[in-house]
Structure formats: structure tokens, C-alpha cells
Amino acid sequence: MSDLPSISVQISVLPSNPGVYQFYDSEGKILYVGKAKNLKKRVSSYFNKKQEYGKTRVLVKKIHSVKHIVVSSESDALLLENNLIKKLLPRYNVLLKDDKSYPWICIKKERFPRVFSTRKLIKDGSEYFGPYTSMKTVRTLLDLVRSLYPLRTCNYDLSEEKIAAGKYKVCLEYHLGNCLGPCAGLQSEADYHGQIENIRQIIKGNFKGSIQHFKQQMKTLAEQMEFEKAQFIKDKIEILENYQARSTVVNPKINNVDVFSIISDETHGYVNFLQLSHGSIVRSHTLEIKKKLDETDEELLQLAITEIRHRFQSQSREIYLPFPVLVEDNIKITLPKLGEKRRILELSERNARFFRQDRFKQIKITDPDRHVKRIMAQMKADLRLSDEPTHIECFDNSNIQGSNPVAACVVFRNGKPSKKEYRHFNIKTVEGPDDFASMEEVVFRRYKRLLGEDEALPQLIVIDGGKGQLSSALKSLEILGLRGKIAIIGIAKRLEEIYFPDDPIPLYLDKKSESLKIIQQLRNEAHRFGITHHRNRRSKEAIDSELENIEGIGKKTAEQLLKQFKSVKRVKEATIESLAESVGMAKAKKIYKSFH
Questions:
Q1: pTM confidence score
Q2: Is the peptide bond before 15 cis (omega within 30 degrees of 0)?
Q3: pLDDT at 134
Q4: From residue 472, how far is each of 58, 294, 422, 433, 451 by CA, in Å?
């Protein structure tokens, strides 16, 4: 390690007092904060011995300089360490641990070993497989094992002396065929241990030995004309082959490999871990990591690899990764580009993506503030904005066959519609169907009013339309002195292109992007709101004109009738007397005669 001499000099001058030490990398970034009863002794220990944890080994490789603060006691060091971690947020102090106790499969160290699930590891020489991330996986494996091999479930001491003395009698499990009765000397130790070896291989994901063993057994029974027993063994082979087909995702030759992938957003990273044995996934786990210092995907993945491998006690010597990161020296890194290896990496990425989607759904319910903050941060990044768009306004023009031109403005706050702030506009200064001039008018009227009333302006304006409508809206902002003060974009319907001012090349967001979904929702809401208003105006005009077409009936009379009878239909059905009460007998006779 080239930096070791300078580190050695720094360590040599450290005091032997209690205190807090800080490790920095070659760029001066804080890596780790720790406390010590004896600073010199503790810091030296990082470099004087082989570190047990992979995370620490990677940390030591990066240390370039050490700073320290001496305090009077160990308790003071603890308090100072806590404060510094909160203030400096060193990335190697990020705890990726959780308080879950994971399930294991235990093969107990006994003369006739039991096989069962447990959450406690007892160092008594028993074998433990795991830990598994899901109890469901453990139960599925144990059910498979028990359907193939009859094992004892009792906890008797099956010593040779006690079995020879006939101390135990077979129980109900023996009569049900779930145990072959080793307690009564009905199954030999060698035969039982042969079963345990096959179980050991199945748990590791290797089914080859068990399938060969059962096929040989079936052939022997068939030769001996014991067809019923042979069929029983054949059923076991089918169970095993079906399980193998479901669990084997790649070539069975891909053995003892760890696969890692990462999906991240503005605030969190999601690292998926798959462990492969004989082509089967024997473990899958996704870790959610909160970003504290705008860490890159490389930094998050490096932290997660060392932590996950330590947590699940992985001994795999090969890792599949989407890009290179710094890991322990004796581990081979593969960056798959094609074929089965690439497929398994894509499967890992898909798992990470699904986990992220599930977390979003949960957060939307349990922590809406975090959900909003994440969406706003994502929109800010996707649309290259200087501020998070917590207040967005969207404009849409609506005219059918050039009649009754109207426009709508809808308002979203924190990604949600704020319907009480929606506004309609009847186009006043434009004759005929001119979308560009109409857009110019409504944008000018909207923001002139907001400025006049000293109301807050939005962080983002969305224009339903392409470059033409966007240019028209920009003219109004220019006149009001708001150009450059409010971000503005246009969205064209055909290919969902997003246009920016003075940029002829549109932006295409991912079709699944949440930012695009919110912009589409804004556009659709503005369209719906505008169309509804437009239809209401046309309907009112149609109704008014139907009554006004009657000779002697003017606009005021028509309005009075609609106010009284609520609809033209009721006016048609009304008697002359009831009409006369509203508009007088002379007009009532004309209306009645017109409709009858």
C-alpha cells in the first residue's frame, strides 16, 4: 500500500489518550469516525492485523490521513463520536445492518441427525445452512426434504447402548411412513447418514446425486418386480425434478456465484443480492440504503457488497456485477455482457426494481411526505430544474370547429391536483381558432393577475402543445418580465416530446417515468377541465338560441324562462297558465304555440 509510510508517521505521533479518530481518503473526504480508549493502539490495529470484515478491509485500502481529538474520558469520546457522526455523516459509519434474526436450516450434530429450521446458532458442531431471507423458502426446502427422505423428529438420545437395550419403541411417525425407526434399530446409521448427505446437497442446490440415487433404486425395484415401490420412488424423482426445474435459472455449471445489482433514485439506493449454487438461486435479498452524501452507485454498491457478504457469510469466490467496484483481492469480478450470465444479472436488476416499486407503494401510504419529496426531487432532476416543482400550472386551449374558444389552467401542488385553484378563461381578444394567440392571451392574463394580487408564482409552467404554443406563452412571460424566473416546458401529444425554450431538440422521458406520468396527468386534467367548460358554453348557447328563435322572445325572456323552469324540456311541457305567470299571457301563447 503506497500510502502506508505517511500513515505510519501519522500513527506514530498519535497520543495514547482516550479520544475520537477520523479517517480521510486521498481527496480529503471523511470515511469513518470512531472512538477509542487508547487512540494510538486503536488506530494502529487497523493496519497491524488482517481485518475480519470485508467492509473494514475496503475502508483500510482507502485511508490516506488520520485526524484525532483528545478528550478526558471514554464516555466523553462516546458522546463526541455520536455528535461527529451526525454532523459529518461519514459513509463507512452508515449502518447497513438491521435487527432481523434470519432463519437457518440446521443439521444437528447427533448420531442420527435431525433437520429443522432455527433462528439461533448454537456452536455445538452442528451444521447451519443460510441464513435465508424468507421463512417461506426454508419451509419449502424442508417440505421437499421430508417428502423425499424419512427422518426422525424425536429428540431421544439414540446411542448404540440404548438402542441395543431396546429402550425405545417406534412411534406414530414410523407407522405413517415418515420415519424408518432408527430408535428401534430398524435403520442403520450408515443408511441414515447417506440420506443426510443427499439432503446436504439438495440444500446447497445440487440435485444430481439424489436423482441418480432414486433412479438406481427404482430400476432395482422394477427388476425385482416390486412395481408398487418402484412407482413410489418414481413419484419422488418427479417431485425432485419439478423442484429443480423451478429453481434452476441458468446452467447448473454456474456454481457458488454472488450476483449484485443496484437501482437508485435521488434519495435511496436498492441493492439486490442473488446467490447461485449449481444454477439455482439459493438466496435473494434486497437492501435499501439511504443516501447521506450524494453517494454514487459505485460507492453504494461497494458498501452493500461487503456488508451483505458478511451478513450472509458468503464464501463465493466470484461476483457478477453491472460495473467494476473495489472488492477484496481474492474475489473474481465478472461483468456479464451476453448469454446466461447477463440474464441472471438482469434478473437481479428486476428484483431490485420490483422491491423499489413495492417500497414506493408502502411509503405512499405510510409516509406521504417522503413520497412527495422523492417525486419532486425526481422531477427536478428529470426536467433539469433549479427548484423542486411543488407548484405547477398547466394550460390547454379548447375550441371545437372554431366556436366558443376557451382555455383552462389547472394547478398541482406537491404532485396532486389543487382543484379549488383551477381557472377557466373565455378568449376575449382572438377572433377564430388561433391556438397560438389564445395561449399568449391566457398566459398573460393569468400571470398579470397573480403579479397584481402579489400571489406566489409556480416553479413550473406546462404548456399543452409543441414549439409553437411554447413560443406564444414565452412572449407573454417576456412582456411581464418573468422569462427566466419561471421554468416553462411544452409537451407535444404525438410522441410525448418535452420542449424547452430555445432548444430545438425535445427531451424524451422514459415511458414509465413518474415525472412523465405527472406531466401527462396535468395535461389530461387541463384538457378535461377545458373541454367540460367548452361543452357547457356550447350547450348554453344552443339552449338560449332555441328559445330566442321564437318570434317575440329575446335574450332576457329566455334567461327568465330557464331560471324559472330549469330546462328547455320543462318549458316545452309547461301549460300556458304557468308560462304566463313567468312572462305574461301574450308571450306565453307565442311560446306554447311554437312548441305545440
A1: 0.46
A2: no
A3: 67
A4: 57, 39, 21, 15, 19
